[in-house]
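Purpose: get a first structural picture of the assembly so the mutagenesis plan has something to point at.
Setup: four entries, given in the order below. No constraints added.
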Amino acid sequence: MTTIEDVAKAAGVSASTVSYVLSGKRSISAPTRKRVEQAIADLSYRPHAGARALASSRTNVIGLMVPLRAGVDVSVVMQFVTGVVTHARQADHDVLLLTQDDAGGLERVAAGSMVDAIIVMDVEADDPRIPILRGLRQPTVLIGLPRDPAGLSCVDLDFEAAGRLGAAHLAGAGHREIALLGPPPEVMARHTSYADRVIRGFRHTRAERSLAAEVEACETTPDGARRAVDAVLGRAPGTTGFLVHNERALPHVLGRLAERGLRVPEDVSVVALCPTAVAMAQSVPLTSIDIPGEVIGGVAVDMVLSRLESKQPAESRLLAPVLTARD
Amino acid sequence: MTTIEDVAKAAGVSASTVSYVLSGKRSISAPTRKRVEQAIADLSYRPHAGARALASSRTNVIGLMVPLRAGVDVSVVMQFVTGVVTHARQADHDVLLLTQDDAGGLERVAAGSMVDAIIVMDVEADDPRIPILRGLRQPTVLIGLPRDPAGLSCVDLDFEAAGRLGAAHLAGAGHREIALLGPPPEVMARHTSYADRVIRGFRHTRAERSLAAEVEACETTPDGARRAVDAVLGRAPGTTGFLVHNERALPHVLGRLAERGLRVPEDVSVVALCPTAVAMAQSVPLTSIDIPGEVIGGVAVDMVLSRLESKQPAESRLLAPVLTARD
DNA sequence: ATGAAAGCGCTAACAT
DNA sequence: ATGTTAGCGCTTTCAT
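Result (structure tokens, whole complex):
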């Protein structure tokens, strides 16, 4: 292993000078800097991450807790992750992967000083991790919105606005009886923040415009989608507008509508709440409200790093939903 | 921050004793151990990861390079990741996430001693990362099989056998004209190891059983799937058996077959090469050859850790494919 | 069975 | 503008 001493010797300077060339924390004369950089290149020197962390109490690693669990849409998750990793790298940070079911993970990596900051995805309304996060030294950003976000930073799509927007779009297209097909029952049951918020927005517009509007959870299987569609049309046969917040069930919902002789967009309208790419890849390109995963992931990194730099207070950011009309 | 010194004081022992209690590397009398463990619990002490890495040159972190790029099936990727993280945690390791496009990432985390070992997914036949991996201090496991695996450990599904198995299953069901619908063209073009190997196996059985057999890349869009199906049926109208190695195109391939009036399984047979869950979630549950992502990820961790422990030589492991008959 | 002490490789005062 | 030096918190010889 090449150490900073080796580099210092090769460049004819002291170790601290090498350190300062690397960090830019004090001015170095041009010739010295050149020699040091040359030596670094010649020896292909890399600072030892552990030694650095020990001396500076900075790891340049961000912990990311990802839901690898039932009912979560993988493509949405991957987009978040991509956004986080990409942005983290741009800010010279790496990403340590934690999983939702690794209960002690937060405490472990935080108390063990493995990370400088933590981003948590897929937050529930009363998430059990929130008290833990509040107790950590490291700043935290939640992707999602807990019931009480006091003292914590949060980012997310404004799912409540998305629920309103979806309903309003359908109403605007003349539909008086509409329905929300949501995530699978298990996701609804744990009151995953986004699921609840979409429903709230949807109901808000239902009341405001006095529409008839059903809300139904939806399994991701062909059968589950069939049951959900049939349930809605059983209770409200006049339903002609659907807001579908369930990327994996989407093809099966469309399939079931087709089986029942309902054509999109002639007989019924469908608005999807999912990543644009998913909406476009359906049998007919759907009108959709985008879930901009990469953007949100990137914003999460920005927020958490800015809190690291400048002790800024926690803040919540909700991104306005954007609806793109297709079929 | 509580340090090992704090614990030592609280327990009335020396720091080294605390360290040995933690590592189990020498025998400690029962009463001392009790006192130390008590102190650790009381102070909720966590060793500083950086200090540990510095002193022991072990980080207990595994680097995992994941393809977040075009044309890769996310659900397969997530399964691998899940397998890796789960197994890593069981062996008391964490996972640092690297992305394929982060070219310098391998060198950075390896030379910077951020990781003890590296797992690389989605390997191409002549992968440019291979020479880099050969140069690292840390042991490496590839998920996939490069043209020349000498000196490197590899794990994967035996995709060549899977290609043979799929073709043989179709032939065994009486089909004389069959087709392979593969991954998107960009994946084929970069000679991603698994794509090539499936084709090789498929062609092997074609020759062996003198079948007529087309091979076609397949975009993941509805349109792309339509084109691929039409292309095959244009060139070989008698085709009645399909092996589909493209999870995202699968629903659209089935859709196009239906549009052309071909029913599954009455008129044509379809075998899917994808995770079981994906095959089951189609409009009709498909006969499939499983891609056991979690298992492979877990095996990768086992292999890389065993190389870490015991300086074992590199080895390649190919998991035998399993076909499950459905519709 | 336990302690003392020498690093591991780096950063950041404190010097000049 | 640069060098000297004292840690950062741990592991692991070397002693006893």
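The first strand of chain B starts at residue 61 and ends at 66.
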